[in-house]
From TrEMBL:
ATP binds at residues 14, 208-212, 283-285, 331-335. Substrate binds at residue 91. This is Acetate kinase. The gene is ackA. Keywords: ATP-binding, Cytoplasm, Kinase, Magnesium, Metal-binding, Nucleotide-binding, Transferase. One of its GO terms (cellular component) is cytoplasm. It comes from Ignavibacterium album (strain DSM 19864 / JCM 16511 / NBRC 101810 / Mat9-16). Pathway: Metabolic intermediate biosynthesis; acetyl-CoA biosynthesis; acetyl-CoA from acetate: step 1/2. Mg(2+) binds at residues 7, 382. Gene3D superfamilies: 3.30.420.40. Belongs to the acetokinase family. The record marks 180, 241 as: Transition state stabilizer. Its EC number is 2.7.2.1.
Amino acid sequence: MKVLVLNCGSSSVKYQFIDTDKKLALAKGLVDRIGMAGAVLSHQRYDGDQIKISGEILDHQIAIEYVLAVLLSKNHGVIDDKKDIEAVGHRVVHGGETFSGSVLITDEVIKALQDNIELAPLHNPPNIKGIQAATRILPGTPQVGVFDTAFHSHMPPKAYLYGIPYELYRKYKIRRYGFHGTSHLYVSKRAAELMGRKYEELKIITAHLGNGCSMAAVDRGVSVDTTMGFTPLEGLLMGTRSGDLDPQVILYIMGKEGLSLNEAATMLNKHSGLIGISGESSDMREILAAVKDQHQRAKHAFDIFCYRIKKYVGAYAAAMGGVDALVFTGGIGENSYEVREEVCRDMEFMGIHLDQLRNQNKEELISSDSSKVKVFRIPTNEELVIAMDTAEIVSSSN
């Protein structure tokens, strides 16, 4: 099946057109700066052909029309007719407690997504806009929603409930949801393939490290815990997010600085993390360059970043009663050998032995042959997960 995968942000649309039988992205690209001056579509075909198109792209519907136009282009496209798009798969950030798996989009599903906007006010609205635009542009083409939260929806109550009055959970659905689910699912399954073992018999810790970071404990194919929580703010130190924090610190700062709720949220989400500690950058590459220049705050940021990952490796191994594999993915996880090396340093006591040469050469298996716990560097492919889910749901509904 040929599936168009859409990931709609507030001012962008990322897309891939995937042949699920071949597991091949025939084309991919990004429409950026929607609704702003200088909007542009960047498109790349599987054979390397590339093009950039500037235009007045005022909303998501026009953006998706641009995507279809370039996919149909004689010079740069990969299809002859709209009907060649057999289904559309949408990345949807938050499914709340409503969705524990991917679903065929219906009016009832749209209503449920709108009901969950309060849980993801920055992400669900553009996701919904993308679904509605694609439905108008491709009438009759089945649409499927694939949720970032779904992979974590089977966590036990001991992992997802917070230590707050239970009535607040019942009233407002305040609980751990977790995010990056499609990434954690893909790389944990890929690790099992590389090990030549059944997914359902392995205990795997996955670390998705990018500007946003999260880890998951995947026990025999089920995510039993994850670091992000009610929002993507909890857990690891991130590019601009604080991660784990004593809640009283927030109240204390708000009182001292006279911050409003919105100002406090902006501080924690946009001005904390790597950039907040280092004062240099939210980009790990720039942090590492500053560390080499003996910048002490950058060194603090790097050390805290790696230390928190290391702590969660130990915690999740304890939670699962052992670990068979540790997987690094995401922009930092895939590209920073320094982070992988620091996280795995002095972890031999629990069976983690990194092979320095493999790690620096960016191989998939980066642990030594004698390592009891296999350590992997696996590029994620969330779009393929979305496409495969979409194909499966559409096929089963026919």
